Amino acid sequence: xxxxxxxxxxxxDRAGARGRxxxxxxxxxxxxxxxxxxxxxxxxxxxxxxxxxQPLVFLLVLGAGLSQLVSHDSIGGVSYQEYIFPGVLAMSxxxxxxxxxxxxxxxxxxxxMREMLxxxxxxxxxxxxxxxxxxxxxxxxxxxxxxxxxxxxxDLSVAKVFGLLGSLFALALMTTALGIVLxxxxxxxxxxxxVMALALQPMVFLSGAIFPLQNxxxxxxxxxxxxxxxxxxxxxxRTLLGSDVALTIHNHVVPVWADLAxxxxxxVALLSVATRLFGHVD
Length: 282
Hints:
Blueprint: H1 9-19, H2 22-42, H3 45-66, H4 80-100, H5 102-109, H6 112-118, H7 123-146, H8 158-183, H9 189-205, H10 218-226, H11 228-241, E1 248-249, E2 252-253, H12 256-278
Antiparallel strand pairs: 1-2
Helix pairs in contact: 2-7, 3-4, 4-7, 4-8, 4-9, 4-11, 7-8, 7-12, 8-11, 8-12, 11-12
């Protein structure tokens, strides 16, 4: 006599997936992958502390030290610490979201990536789940820094806070997608960390986060204007400080919709590339 033990877990999971609507299954996959990254952050408090140290140094030390050297007229009539505050938030988000993709390399080394890829879920759901999870982790670190706004004279309102959160999350999605694209081609943690360091420094320092981009020499202005993070920083800065600090290119003010279109458009493009590359991750 044979005993029927029922379908295997893999078969049961596939049957369950067929029983749900494709959209519901796709959204559920995104949520599970994103939640995993958030749980990982909760178990690594040192990552939160480490992600706050550098922004605090820039804001409190560099901001106070250079505030007397920067003309208020060149930064829209606000103090230097007010001016760099949105930039410091953006720096924290960019650094955290880029390094969030290190989980992909880590999962590959320990075999978890292979398990995800053989699961009955779409590659786009996995990639978007990674992007949402990494973006949420980066945004969580930025939220902690928002509490410092009154210390540097930045007035907050409910509308400004929600606008800032939306701007930072869009920036986080874009940079997380870039990190996923780079991580998809990396097989060693050491290689990924080196590439991230090379990508992070130019992206941050050429974004206008810590100095105004007006009246720069042409050789420096061009890479600043080509840097997509520049438009995410400008979006966050204008949300908090208004149009007086808006980014200008050849004396033309960059519209808010253009900032948003560049950040979101590039995020979508990078996520599409990452989805294609994810199919070749082993």
